[in-house]
Amino acid sequence: MAKQSKKQKEALTKYDSSKEYTLSEAVKIVKDITFTKFDASFDLDVRLGVDPRKANQMVRGTVTLPHGTGKTKSVLVLCPQDKEEEAKAAGAEYVGLDEYITKIKGGWTDVDVIITMPSVMPKIGALGRILGPRGLMPNPKTGTVTMDIAKAVQEVKAGKIDFKVDKFGIIHTSVARMSFSEQDIVDNALEVLRMIEKLKPTTAKGTYMKSVSVSSTMSHGVKIDAKTISK
User: 180: which of 31, 89, 100, 189 is 20 to 30 A away, CA to CA?
Assistant: First the structure.
């Protein structure tokens, strides 16, 4: 078992790790037990009562955070030449098609989001084995395969994120930076939690949100009482 640092031991004295808190209380605690010198991310973990192996219980969605992500995301738009100016005007850092497909085949994936159009998808299909594991493969469900390139780029720049339940039935996503105010973190987290609630599969039985916890990049997790997430 890894030895706990002095600061980690100190953090454990600031709250009860077995207790469930309201979201507002949990945010305050995480801010109090985060000692990183860099601007850590504020992370949300939600364990769902679903079976991700079943297609009709896969929970996946997108949401635009009211206060943004606190991080400037770099965007690559793979599009025909007649759409390039539109993509650049919307704020995309990288715009093109064949030259970037070649770069990706060579191992280049130095972007946060890739956006494309339905007509281009046949060319991108072969990149799935490279982009898929990195979470970069464009998908209509996340709004990254669209006819409205400009809107998609603007949404990403405004703080749009996507999330997906993993094979263990858990959604893990960053919703803010620790430099955000407590209220801004609460607002962002609530937006994600409410969207997850809306996406509850009709086939899911029993308790949907089994557990919710929050943490920063290197802090301990703080449990939240799912019944109080609106507070």
Answer: 89
Instruction: Give CB contacts under 8 A, 24+ apart, made by 198-204.
Output: 198/61, 199/59, 199/60, 199/61, 200/59, 201/50, 201/56, 201/57, 201/58, 201/59, 202/56, 203/54, 203/56, 203/57, 204/48, 204/49, 204/50, 204/57
* Pair 129, 170 in one domain: no
- What is the phi/psi pair of residue 98, to 5°? -60, -40
- Name the strands in the sheet holding 41-48, side by side, starting at the edge strand that comes first in the sequence: 170-177, 41-48, 209-216, 222-224
Residues 150 and 181 in one domain: no
User: What percentage of the chain's residues is helix, strand, coil (to nearest 5)?
Assistant: 40, 20, 40
- Percent pLDDT > 70 in the chain is 94
User: Does 167 reside within a domain?
Assistant: yes
% of the chain with per-residue pLDDT over 90: 77
What pLDDT is attached to residue 1? 41
Q: Give pTM, 2 decimals.
A: 0.80
Instruction: Give the residue ranges of DSSP H helices in 68-148.
Output: 84-90, 98-105, 121-124, 128-131
Nearest to 229 by CA among 180, 194, 185, 195: 194
pLDDT one-digit tens code per residue, 133-184: 998 999 998 899 999 999 999 999 999 998 999 999 999 999 999 999 999 9
Please state the domain count of the chain: 2
